[in-house]
């Protein structure tokens, strides 16, 4: 595991980059239709998004210019704060490039699962379908799929 003076500055390892490729390659075409991308300010999430953009030739896709570094989606982020911001933004299709434990808790909350049911490890990717109902709350989502590196 790479070391850094703080969690915010910990880079992705070569294994982490390889895992990103394994998970993204089969679904990269779905990324073209995104309305937004929110990326945590932490180094490894920035590296993950940059890898996706460069490795899969998304540089000409409008979404790459709209990626937002979002301070709410760090490991210590709060599910209720993220839900509030998602409601306000009203995106139809959004990618969050973020961390555990926030993303696992968000997935469990949106889909109405027991707390800590899903651990989202390095390069895990989930698709959740939500109705257009607002406010977002527990159980409104349907987990369509969850991909993990081999």
Tally of domains: 1
Which class of secondary structure composition applies to the elements? alpha/beta
Q: How would you spell out the order of helices and strands?
A: HHEHHEHEHEE
Per DSSP, the total helix count is 6
Helix content: 25-40%
At the fold tier of CATH, the topology name is Rossmann fold
- Can you tell me the residue ranges where pLDDT is under 50 for at least 5 consecutive residues? none
Major β-sheet profile: 3 strands, parallel
The radius of gyration computed from the alpha-carbon positions, rounded to a whole number of angstroms, is 15 Å
Mean pLDDT: 87
Number of DSSP E strands: 5
Shape summary: globular
- Highest CATH level, the class: Alpha Beta
CATH architecture: 3-Layer(aba) Sandwich
The N- to C-terminal Cα distance equals: 18 Å
CATH superfamily, by name, is Phosphoglycerate mutase-like
In the sheet with the most strands, the strands line up as 2-1-3
Percent in strands: 15-25%
């Amino acid at each position: 595991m790479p070391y850094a003076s703080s969690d915010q500055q910990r880079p992705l390892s070569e294994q982490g980059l390889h895992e990103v490729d394994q998970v993204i390659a089969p679904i990269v075409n779905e990324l073209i239709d995104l309305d937004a991308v929110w990326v945590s300010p932490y180094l490894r999430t920035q590296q993950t998004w940059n890898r996706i953009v460069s490795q899969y030739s998304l540089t000409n896709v409008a979404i790459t210019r709209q990626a937002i570094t979002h301070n709410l989606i760090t490991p210590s982020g709060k599910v209720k704060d993220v839900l509030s911001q998602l409601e306000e933004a009203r995106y139809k299709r959004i990618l969050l490039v973020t961390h555990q434990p926030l993303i696992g808790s968000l997935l469990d909350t949106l889909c109405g699962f027991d707390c800590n049911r899903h651990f989202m490890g390095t390069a895990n990717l989930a698709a959740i379908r939500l109705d257009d109902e607002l406010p977002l709350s527990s159980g409104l989502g349907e987990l369509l799929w969850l991909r993990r590196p081999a």
